[in-house]
Design a protein that fits this description.
- The complex is a heterodimer of chains A (296) and B (341).
- By secondary structure, chain A is mainly alpha-helical.
- Chain A is built from 13 helices and 2 strands, in the order ββααααααααααααα.
- Helices cover 73% and strands 2% of the residues of chain A.
- Chain A is globular and about 65 Å long.
- Helices cover 24% and strands 28% of the residues of chain B.
- A 6-stranded mixed sheet of chain B has the order 4-5-6-1-7-8, with helices on both faces.
- In chain B, helix 4 packs across helix 5.
- The chains are: A mainly alpha (296), B alpha+beta (341).
Chain lengths: 296, 341
């Protein structure tokens, strides 16, 4: 931004130097405008349309959408699935990142790769895998059916598929954080006489709490919003195995736009709250999150 | 670590000294119970503690980078070891509070109990770590490179202070260091470690005066090593005979070690060695000469009184006041200590 003017004799008086990293004003504004336009068309406009469509016939029909028993069942199911999947992944994620960050054992790199698997596998494939394992024609299907246990096309299958898809969020956040912190504070606590569990509660947990919350937040958003894997294992039984995203699709396909977008508002609202909390954590507790998270 | 046998007396201040990778920190961690030995035993007061979990060993450990709990205040850090005790053995709130005050005073950090570790200087953190270790009334105090992360001036102060603390508490103390000055200045006995083996255990005087191996003599203070040959009871270096007692030593290649202070310019015709004067500098007491010894690839600095005049580039005879000789064994390692001059 600074200008250096060298005054010399003759016509060259007042030559201005621009730092090499600065583009011309035109290039700068063009780039910013492109980015803003892109965001507006592909992100903001769809979000706005969700709200506009939901309220297109006024507040009455919007609220009426939530009176529908199927819609209520979908909301209840979504909350139930998240209430099981998120704590499960909290525990799995803690255990996985603890073992990876604090111990060395053979097959550690394989475990790290496996944790990333749900990110690289299409959710639909993840759902299909569960159908193949637990479905009626699947590996354990007949045995499960004989014992009166139904997993596929029922709530357990939805929970399993959701756990699979959201597994990496907590572990991916905690592994770099715990690796960075090492185990020296835990060792100090042990020499001072603390038991393993007390050390976890009083030393490890306080050190990772913000990172853990961050991971749980992302995990929850994905658990409630997951469509692909859940769609494959759900069976789309109204009032029984439809989560909010599946219910939105059904309503939309029936040209019930207001009800579809009313439920979509719930998901969009969840996304906005998640984004808000995430931004707050990054702003307020950046030093307590892993380097990877800060760059998100 | 191999064949390590170490007996530490009650109330002793012992240094584990060695270069990085020598196993000194590993040995300390084995004593603390943070690492378990593949073989061998750890005894506390004669009782086998090898399988005693770290929590039950009651060791006060001060870690290299202090390992203070970042999210706790100084006071909470210090009494952590008391608060985590099971209810039966936990002191009362009032007793814990009194202990904090007492310990803060002891480590000269009165009034800083409410601070967080990030608000303290390196030296203050070090003292918090020590207070935290002392709070549990440990049987033995273990310090890993206690001054490693501090700047030189603070190190000097804390050395003296640690010596005082040791005197006041009377605690058996073991500390790890790679700095031989630190080990020699502080410790009652020094354990010199190299490549997982104990090279020598002794008081600083013993290490200086009777180093047991070439490693000890070169690691503890400066030393010059000359490759020599022992034949028929005579030691020769570059064709000259050195007057070193070789009684009982095997013939063959050997090394003579001596400290720069043990070599001096001598009268013409009586020297063990000969060297050439490379440079001369005036010092308050006399002259400091840099001398290149014939057949040795490095130069030595020798202080000599003014009257022994030497000229630049001239040749001077040198005599050894004290030296140690280590003959090579069949593997070519220089192990067996000879008495020297």
């Amino acid at each position: 931004m600074s200008e250096i003017a060298i005054t010399s004799s003759g016509r060259d008086r007042g030559v201005k130097f621009r730092p090499v990293t600065h583009d011309s004003a035109f290039a700068r504004y063009a780039l910013i405008a492109t980015a803003v336009l892109f965001l507006a068309i592909f992100l903001l406009a769809p979000l706005a349309i969700v709200f506009v469509e939901a309220f297109s016939k006024g507040i009455g029909p919007f609220l009426a959408a939530f009176d529908d028993p199927d819609a209520r069942a979908a909301i209840r199911l979504t909350l139930l699935v998240a209430a099981i999947a998120v704590p499960a992944n909290l525990v799995f994620g803690l255990a996985a990142s603890w073992s990876i960050a604090k111990f060395s054992f053979p097959g550690k790199s394989v475990l790290i790769t496996l944790i990333d698997l749900p990110f690289s596998v299409s959710p639909v494939v993840a759902g299909l895998v569960y159908v193949l394992v637990f479905g009626g024609q699947g590996l354990f299907g007949p045995w499960l059916a004989a014992h009166g246990v139904q997993i596929i096309f029922a709530v357990p299958g939805i929970v399993l598929a959701t756990i699979f898809v959201t597994f990496p969020f907590v572990a991916r956040e905690l592994i770099p954080l715990m690796e960075e912190q090492g185990k020296i504070e835990e060792e100090a606590a042990l020499t001072l006489g603390a038991s393993g569990f007390k050390t976890f509660l009083t030393v490890t947990l306080p050190n990772i709490k913000w990172g853990l919350l961050y991971g749980v937040l992302l995990c929850n958003a994905r658990a409630m919003g997951e469509f692909g894997a859940v769609s494959v294992v759900s069976g789309h039984i109204r009032g029984l195995t439809n989560t909010i995203p599946l219910q939105v699709e059904i309503l939309y396909n029936e040209y019930n736009n207001v009800a579809a977008f009313a439920l979509a508002v719930l998901l969009a609202g969840l996304a906005l709250v998640t984004l808000g909390l995430k931004t707050f954590l990054e702003w307020r507790h950046a030093d307590a999150l892993s380097g990877r998270a800060r760059r998100h | 670590m191999r064949d390590v046998s170490l007996d530490i007396q009650p109330g002793e201040l012992v240094a584990l000294l060695g270069p990085s990778g020598s196993g000194k920190t590993t040995l300390l961690r084995v004593i603390a119970g943070l690492n378990s030995p593949d073989r061998g035993r750890v005894l506390f007061d004669g009782e086998n503690a090898t399988n005693l979990p770290v929590q039950d060993r009651h060791v006060g450990m001060v870690f290299q980078n202090y390992a203070l709990f970042k999210h706790m205040t100084v006071a909470d850090n210090i009494v952590y070891g008391l608060r985590v005790r099971p209810r039966r053995t936990r002191p009362s709130r009032a007793a814990i509070k009194a202990r904090v005050t007492e310990l803060l005073q002891f480590v000269q950090l009165d009034g800083l109990g409410g601070r967080y570790p990030s608000q303290l200087s390196g030296g203050q953190r070090q003292r918090v770590a020590l207070a935290r270790a002392l709070a549990i009334e440990p049987r033995v105090l273990l310090l890993d490179e206690p001054f490693g992360a501090l700047d030189a001036r603070v190190r000097k102060d804390l050395r003296r202070w640690l010596r005082d603390i040791h005197k006041q508490t009377g605690l058996t103390t073991v500390f790890v260091t790679h700095d031989q000055d630190e080990a020699m200045e502080l410790a009652d006995r020094v354990v010199v470690l190299n490549e997982g083996r104990i090279e020598q255990i002794g008081t600083p005087e013993e290490l200086y005066d009777r180093p047991a191996s070439p490693f000890v003599i070169s690691f503890v203070g400066e030393a010059v090593a000359l490759p020599v040959t022992i034949a028929d009871g005579h030691v020769t270096f570059g064709g000259r005979e050195l007057h070193i007692d070789t009684h009982g030593l095997r013939s063959g290649p050997a090394r003579v070690f001596f400290r720069p202070a043990d070599i001096a310019v001598t009268a013409e015709g009586s020297g063990d060695l000969e060297g050439r004067v490379e440079s001369l500098r005036r010092t308050p007491a006399g002259v400091r000469a840099t001398i290149a010894i014939d057949g040795y690839d490095q130069t030595l600095e020798i202080d000599s009184p003014l009257d022994r005049s030497a000229s630049l580039g001239g040749r001077v005879p040198l005599s050894l006041a004290k030296a140690r000789i280590f003959p090579a064994d069949e593997n070519g390692d220089y192990v067996d200590a000879g008495d020297g001059i």
